[in-house]
Amino acid sequence: MELHGANILGGGVSSAGGTTFRGVNPATGAALEPAFHEATEAEIDRALALADAAFASYRKKSPDDIARFLEAIATGLENLGAELIARAHAETALPEARLLGERARTAMQLRMFAALVREGSWLDARIDRADPARAPVPKVDMRRMLLPMGPIVVFGASNFPLAFSVCGGDTASALAAGNPVVVKGHPAHPGTSEMAARVVQEAIRACGMPAGIFSMVHGPSPAVGLALVRHPLARAVGFTGSLGAGRALFDAAAARPVPIPLFAEMGSINPVFVLPGALRSRGAGIAQSMAKSVTLGVGQFCTKPGLALGLGGADFDAFTKTLSGEIAQSPAATMLHAGIAEQFRSGFGKRRGISGVNLAASAAPDASSESPGPARARSAAAYAAVFTADSQLFRDEPSLGDELFGPATLVVPCETKQCLMDIATKLAGQLTVTIHASEEDLAEFAPLIGILREKAGRLVFGSMPTGLEVGPATQHGGPYPATTDPRFTSVGTAAILRFVRPVCFQDFPQAWLPAELKDENPRGIARIVDGAWTRDPI
Amino acid sequence: MELHGANILGGGVSSAGGTTFRGVNPATGAALEPAFHEATEAEIDRALALADAAFASYRKKSPDDIARFLEAIATGLENLGAELIARAHAETALPEARLLGERARTAMQLRMFAALVREGSWLDARIDRADPARAPVPKVDMRRMLLPMGPIVVFGASNFPLAFSVCGGDTASALAAGNPVVVKGHPAHPGTSEMAARVVQEAIRACGMPAGIFSMVHGPSPAVGLALVRHPLARAVGFTGSLGAGRALFDAAAARPVPIPLFAEMGSINPVFVLPGALRSRGAGIAQSMAKSVTLGVGQFCTKPGLALGLGGADFDAFTKTLSGEIAQSPAATMLHAGIAEQFRSGFGKRRGISGVNLAASAAPDASSESPGPARARSAAAYAAVFTADSQLFRDEPSLGDELFGPATLVVPCETKQCLMDIATKLAGQLTVTIHASEEDLAEFAPLIGILREKAGRLVFGSMPTGLEVGPATQHGGPYPATTDPRFTSVGTAAILRFVRPVCFQDFPQAWLPAELKDENPRGIARIVDGAWTRDPI
Q1: CB-based contact, A61 to chain B, within 8 Å
Q2: What is the mean pLDDT of residues A496-522?
Q3: Is the Cβ of B473 closer than 8 Å to some Cβ of chain A?
Q4: How far is CA B228 from CA A405, B246, B413, in A?
């Protein structure tokens, strides 16, 4: 596939703007061909107008048609074979095996949503039947189900160039619900984005879908993202990325003349609580798996454990030592792009500069020169690290609770159970909280479990938070700043609920009801009829 | 019950502030005893602190305990007997029969949520079982359900002093989900609010609930509402009221350091489409029921039909004439308070002043003196009215699409089918859209139905939008400006979804899982296990 570098606008391409940029190989710093065209205001407007116009016919497509379309995208991604993997590797430095796994996950997600759409019970159909004999007034017939909202804006994330990007979970869930999608490709992997977008274009052609239901625009400039979020025809937004960018877009969505929902997943520090019994019986094993989790994908996961907490003492010291030893031996690795590596080094330097913070381990060949020198500043190399801080410092210094995106973590021993509880109580919202505990720990720290339940979208017991399973029970979300709305998830089948709204049809003639609300229940979906779940016809 | 005029803070009362106000009888303008104390910053802070502290024990209450608590509130409201109705009548001028009906609805809502909580399937429990044998990595066990969010701020609405006020649907759904509630009582019915709040206090005592789960503060000043929404311990907000107030609170919630979801239901114009076949066969009947719907409760329903649209001609003229005749004969009525009546008269005057807008009917004794004179301005009296405007003016003058809260409506004949479609396409978001159509109309106007589906939360066929039925299939919401988030409803069992968030428990020991997620399914709720609905244990 020869890359054209243009914006994908429905069935066509457009490169009207004069501002161009290139993908960069983060391992070498070399710019990659071709040049990509940042979208102009007119191109953004065109993308949304096409999406809006296509909505009327897309929403009439049968569930089976939509499912086959999603499956065609999955197959198209697979059919790109080694070419896609090679380009993604060149743009992100992620290893081939990881990218193959990520493509498999991306295809699986698309097929998972296809299956969800075919089965249909997710539509939450509810029927309250009429009662003409009710006094003092007859009861009307009400039937309610979830319907698509219209054009959805999706932001590709840098750290999953396939699974959270052009054809990732946001796009899959929005399309599955019956919405057109306009993606802003992440500027760190524009070639990968174009390849994925062209797969969608081809699937649209092959499946006879309206061309306008998918566009993908390029834009390193924040203005492009803001223009998408502010566009009057946009109905909702899905974003994965940094707190700064996510909050700026959230503010823009809320400040519109007509505000729209924006779900931003902005990461977290994913604390790991290692309680005394667990520490005693398998502290070394936990430390080893934590080291793997911290360095997995060069620490570039939203669920990277950025904090370990426990009761100070010999066992916790041993845990910290094992963790530090593992981290110190981890090889240098290349981050997704130079900017992200610079941010990591800068955050590393700031953290190291906090009085009382100790650098317990660094994988850097010469830890004293960890601060970026002229040569290193130009590369995307990063070295893993373990910091330690005492519990008082952790409570006094708010920046220690901020995410440091990259292969670093912080270990905080607490003097007392109460101190551990206090820190737990004051934690900001998290995507995940992990607990390592023995039976005795659980009994002794029962109130801690209650506290932690309020802090995160996912509570992990006995393992590590990285390696998120994708399914109906997935919750990838959490209280702010993990996300902008703790009531939703961006991963798993429930991600579709971000992009639908309920509509109630009152006293509608059968012929004019959606199939899912008709008496005979032709699709055989689970419905709530007069308050009770059933798949039966009426 | 002797009213004390204090703020209700958990189990106690507080009247620390020096600013007081009184309820006013809108029919006479007479101030009612006693004086009520506007809450101070410290009292607001105390209400939220009590709520936050009580959350830890309230969320551990059994579903049956919460259900009995909700039922005790319902019974308590009923047991207030005529005293509550008399006070509500004095404060709102709503007739006794209406208030009795509204109390019955309020009690019914509380019992409906009690039944929902007891049954338990609403918790959307999902279990994805582990597969230790899966390659390349074992599959973990994930279990997800909805959990309460914490303190919810609820704003009482003026137009339903019981059903959308202190013990209304917002409070009932928030408490049912396991959240503490802090209500801001509406200043137009402070005595009714105090009586209802004391019923909740008594139910808390009788049911052994933690006292802090409920507070009610008074505050005519916008500062009180803003302080509640901005309070760091508030987790979500429910509001029903005007677009101006709702948007100001929404902006405040979004601008917090930690943004929180705010669901504001802000009303709409609820267009009624009367298509030619329906007009021909029963135009007079539709006009009569529309007149009733416009004047019901002095036009003070969020779902009041504020716009009738159809194809111009003799049949539509006859419809307009019948509607006008009915409206002209409707008696003068008293609005909820002088402020709302002033707004109505002012909006009436502005609309009348638009060149091309015709006052087709007015119930005022002397229509020429409809603009507020000195005497009328002091009372809350209002006269019903019908305006007409041609379709071009409706499209050119945006204020004709704004809600005019009170007993007035606007009739717009369209020259062509295309003109009707154009107006439908440009409609802002609505709580409801109503369609009167024959079989032939539906066939001929099929695209119109598709357009209207995108505009509202509830589509009503063949009747009027007022008189909302409350149940599982209710959708009282819609695209902005009807609400701030079209994905939620403030009425019906689904209203509870505003105040809960999903939490996933990964690999948790059975003993530490919530009952709803345990293998044996002790509550027998419907769950999604490995993607399929079942009530079976695992």
Answers
A1: no
A2: 98
A3: yes
A4: 34, 14, 45
The answer to whether the Cβ–Cβ distance between B475 and A502 falls below 8 Å is yes
Contacts of A56 in chain B (CB under 8 A): 450
Alpha helical stretches, state H, A403-476? 417-426, 439-444, 446-453
Least confident of A104-108, A437-441, A451-455, B372-376: B372-376
Domains in chain A, please, with CATH? 271-461 (3.40.309.10), 506-534 (no CATH)
pLDDT, position A115: 98
CA B358 to chain CA centroid, Å, is 32
- CB contact under 8 Å between A149 and B484, yes or no, is no
Which secondary-structure segment (H or E) carries B57? helix B41-58
pLDDT at A405 over 70: yes
Interface check for B444 against chain A (CB to CB < 8 A): the answer is no
Task: Answer whether B528 sits within 8 Å of A144, measured CB to CB.
Answer: no
Running DSSP on this structure, what letter comes out for residue B221?
S
Q: B479 contacts in A (CB within 8 Å)?
A: 258, 501
pLDDT of the residue at A472: 97
- A33 is a catalytic site residue: no
* Token output for A419: 């101190």
Q: What is the C-alpha separation between A108 and B420, in angstroms, rounded? A: 45
From the list A38, A102, A302, A403, the catalytic residue is: A302
Within an 8 Å CB–CB cutoff, is residue B144 touching chain A? Answer: yes
- Three-state SS string across A307-363, please? EEEEECCHHHHHHHHHHHHHHHCCCCEECCCHHHHHHHHHHHHHHHCCCCCEEEEEC
Q: Both tokens of residue A165?
A: 């990007």
Instruction: Give dist(CA B17, CA A355) in Å, integer.
Output: 45
Q: What length does chain B have?
A: 538
Report the alpha-carbon distance of residue B518 to residue B376 in Å, rounded: 65
The set of residues, in sequence order, having a beta carbon less than 8 Å from that of B518 and lying 6+ positions away, is: B510
Contact list, A259 vs chain B (CB under 8 Å) = 250, 254, 480, 484
d(CA B226, CA B246): 11
Residues 6+ apart with CB under 8 A from B86: none
Q: Cβ contacts of residue B458 below 8 Å, gap of 6+? A: A503, A504, A505, A506, B431, B432, B433, B465, B468, B475, B476, B478
Residue B378's pLDDT is 54
| B193, amino acid identity | S
At A368, the pLDDT band (50, 70, 90 cuts) reads low
Predicted pLDDT at A136: 86
Tell me which residue in B60, B127, B472 faces A473 most closely, judged by beta carbons: B127
Query: pLDDT value at position A379?
Result: 77
pLDDT in the model for residue B329: 96
Per-residue pLDDT tens digits for A428-471: 999 999 999 999 999 999 999 999 999 999 999 999 999 999 99
| pLDDT tens profile B477-517 | 999 999 999 999 999 999 999 999 999 999 999 999 999 99
Supply the ipTM of this predicted assembly.
0.97
Beta bridge partners of A502: A146
- Looking at the complex, does the CB of residue B534 fall below 8 Å from at least one CB of chain A? no
Q: Chain A partners of B467 at a C-beta cutoff of 8 Å?
A: 137
Q: What is the pTM of this model?
A: 0.97
3-state secondary structure B119-183: HCHHHCCEEECCECCCCCCCECCEEEEEEECCCEEEECCCCCCCCCCCCCHHHHHHHHCCCCEEE
Structure tokens at B272: 């009624």
By annotation, the residues of B acting in catalysis are 265, 302
- Which tokens is B208 given? 């052994």
Give me the pLDDT at residue B368, please: 52
Q: How confident is the model at residue B187 (pLDDT cuts 50, 70, 90)?
A: very high
Q: What percentage of residues in chain A have a pLDDT greater than 90?
A: 96
